[in-house]
Design a protein that fits this description.
The complex is a heterodimer of chains A (about 325) and B (about 290). Chain A is built from 14 helices and four strands. Chain A is mainly alpha-helical. Chain A has a domain of about 220 residues. Chain A has a two-stranded antiparallel sheet with strand order 1-4. In chain A, strands 2-3 form a two-stranded antiparallel ribbon. In chain A, helix 2 crosses helix 11, helix 4 packs antiparallel against helix 10 and helix 11 packs parallel to helix 14. The radius of gyration of chain A is 21 Å and the shape is globular. The C terminus of chain A is likely disordered. By secondary structure, chain B is mainly alpha-helical. Chain B has one domain: Orthogonal Bundle (ABC transporter involved in vitamin B12 uptake, BtuC). Helix content of chain B is about 75%, strand content about 0%. Chain B has a two-stranded antiparallel ribbon. The longest helix of chain B has 29 residues. Chain B is globular. The model of chain B has no long low-confidence stretch (mean pLDDT about 85). Classes of the chains: A mainly alpha (about 325), B mainly alpha (about 290). At the A-B interface, helix 5, helix 11 and helix 13 of A face helix 4, helix 5, helix 10 and helix 12 of B.
Chain lengths: ~325, ~290
């Protein structure tokens, strides 16, 4: 009991401290520019953790994750512009829309694994971009759809929050990201998550042990798409603008770098990766032309020399440290 | 209906370039089991080397063509000996991500060296358009067709009748067994990689005389090549060629029906093939 208590405490204290820092962050950093970086990094936290569900836990390397993000953003834009639905509604509608698309796509692409799965997911994102680009009546083509406003929370006589104010939107994004990450965390640490791991490690063995791998793959695919769609709505209402560029492969690579930089299959890793990899590009703004070359080199080195990412590196160091301590005691 | 032969012809020309790129991709995948997402960059670099050698350095077209192919092959050898050797036996996600990173690197390298503006490789021919049997064409397009046919014949003969070709086929079927009977796997990998890169570069130079040369062309080519390879059946030599031609024709006719969705035709084809014939249209034998 004591052990469990201290273990809980050792998690609770850093988590509480982190929460406190995140809550007072707008006071600490003040300027709008840094708040903007913080909001964007929160959107990517949702994207990277939802991708981790697929790539890290289920072992399904999807290269089309940004398509669900983009479909979500478009759904939010259209719902807002045509029907005036605020973020509270579009968030869930976008998530559901992306999830339905993922379910339909899954009927097809979850028949195949390995490189075929990889290739079809890239192709899927490309088809999405072509639709957004060419269906001009609906999407306005390359020009995109502007004018998606953040919501205003108004309870007469009680409170009035305009989320058009950047610090207010920061808290909103923080809340959505925190809830999303904790749901994803719960899923991965439940029997469903264990089955995903079984699917990743050895699909045949999992099947022989009674795991319905097809169903688990579908669950992972659909739920990761749901969160990506939700992130799309959060992003659309923040930037106020959607365009076919959201389908670009660069977005998918960015998300993958975040997952691999932090450490795939850990949830906490992609969170760290998302924050670091939103700040890093901003810091590298001076070397704008060479930015993508530097990113790709980072990704290359990571994949070849540190495939478990920062979390893996940290664990290895800690293991070495504690391991030495034990031998010293003995 | 008299426009149909014209569309068939145009589709075949584009299909030839797809086939040339896809053959290398297939060979590398079949032999080394690495899905090389940077393969299209060899096509892009081939075109840029040729542009640079002919327009800036001032070589003539044919010397430039050979020199660019050799240059890209050398780059292929260097990459195979370093990065791809590290990736041998790595997981699918590692090799896919590493080659994606490589492709981003090469594309942005080209962007920084040659700029984003589309360029053109000067054609070696004086004549403009040619007409036969009611089909309009240019000497550059005929060259593309001719070279592809030649390459296919050479590859076929090489695989059938030379010692190396037999070794490649043996390794393709059973890597360990091939190594046991004394086939030098490392040398074969390097050779296959170099030939694959060289063929992509060749396609880049020839297509650069017909269309334009720009840094983003590599990424699209990679995607198209994967479409071709999936259509034809992954790791099938004949499938790569046939898949290329099928895609070229499908796009050409797709352009009549819905011009804006021309590029989607191939993608939808792939989805259908994966649904009904997951091994591709042409099975999975190497011959």
């Amino acid at each position: 009991m004591v052990m469990k208590g201290t273990a809980r405490l050792s998690v609770a204290i850093p988590l509480g401290l982190l929460g406190l820092v995140l809550l007072v962050l707008p006071r600490l950093i003040g300027t709008d520019y840094y708040l903007h970086v913080a909001i964007v990094s929160l959107v990517f936290v949702i994207l990277a953790t939802s991708l981790d569900l697929l790539v890290g836990y289920s072992g399904l390397l999807s290269l089309g994750h940004t398509a669900f993000f983009a479909f979500g953003a478009y759904a939010a834009a259209l719902l807002y512009l045509h029907f005036g639905v605020p973020l509270w509604g579009t968030m869930f509608a976008s998530g559901a829309f992306a999830a339905v698309i993922a379910w339909l796509l899954g009927l097809l692409v979850l028949n195949v694994r390995g490189h075929r799965f990889v290739i079809t997911t890239v192709i899927f994102a490309e088809i999405g971009r072509l639709i957004a680009y060419n269906w001009t009546d609906l999407t306005n083509g390359q020009i995109g759809l502007p004018g998606i406003r953040p919501p205003v929370l108004d309870i007469p006589g009680l409170l009035h929050i305009d989320f058009g104010v950047r610090s207010a939107y920061y808290y909103l994004a923080l809340a959505v990201a925190a809830v999303s990450v904790s749901i994803i965390w719960r899923v991965t640490h439940s029997p469903v998550g264990w089955r995903m791991l079984a699917l990743r490690e050895n699909e045949r063995l999992a099947e022989a042990s009674g795991v319905d791998t097809r169903q688990i793959a579908t669950t992972a695919f659909v739920s990761s798409a749901f969160f990506a769609g939700l992130a799309g709505a959060l992003y659309a209402h923040y930037t106020g603008f959607v365009s076919p560029d959201l389908f670009y492969f660069t977005y998918t690579t960015t998300m993958l770098i975040m997952v691999f930089l932090g450490g795939k299959g850990t949830i906490i890793g992609p969170v760290i990766g998302a924050v670091l990899f939103t700040i890093l590009p901003e810091a590298l703004r001076v070397a704008a032309n060479y930015r993508l070359m530097i990113f790709s080199l980072i990704l290359l080195l990571l994949v070849v020399f540190a495939p478990e990412g920062l979390v893996g590196l940290f664990n290895r160091l800690r293991l070495r440290f504690t391991g030495r301590k034990k031998t010293a005691n003995a | 209906m008299d426009f149909i032969p014209q569309y068939v012809f145009n589709g075949l020309v584009v299909g030839c370039s797809y086939a040339l790129i896809a053959v290398g991709l297939t060979a590398i995948f079949g032999l080394m089991e690495i899905a090389n997402f940077a393969h299209g960059q060899f096509y892009m670099l081939g075109a840029y080397f040729s542009y640079w050698l002919t327009r800036i350095v001032g070589l003539d077209f044919w010397t430039g063509l050979v020199a660019s192919i050799v240059g890209v092959m050398l780059l292929g050898v260097i990459l195979e000996r370093t990065l791809f050797r590290l990736l041998r036996g790595a997981s699918l996600s590692s090799s896919v991500l590493a080659t994606i990173a490589l492709s981003i690197f090469l594309e942005n390298l080209a962007l920084n060296v040659w700029g984003p503006r589309p360029q053109k490789i000067l054609s070696p021919f004086e004549t403009g358009s040619i007409e036969f049997l009611g089909i309009f064409t240019t000497p550059e397009r005929l060259l593309m067709l001719f070279v592809t046919v030649l390459i296919v014949i050479l590859l076929h003969l090489g695989l059938r009748h030379t010692q190396t070709g037999k070794a490649i086929r043996a390794t393709f079927q059973q890597r360990e067994a091939a190594a046991l009977v004394g086939i030098d796997i490392d040398r074969l990998y390097t050779l296959t990689f170099a030939i694959g890169a060289g063929l992509a570069a060749l396609a880049g130079v020839l297509l650069g005389t017909i269309f334009v040369v720009q840094p983003s062309m590599g990424g699209i080519a990679t995607l198209k090549a994967f479409v071709v390879v999936t259509l034809g059946g992954i790791s099938s030599f004949a499938g790569g060629i046939a898949g290329g031609l099928v895609l070229g024709l499908a796009e050409s006719f797709g352009a009549i029906i819905a011009p804006a969705y021309k590029d989607a035709v191939g993608f939808i084809l792939v989805m259908l093939v994966l649904l009904y014939k997951p091994d591709g249209l042409f099975g999975k034998k190497w011959s």
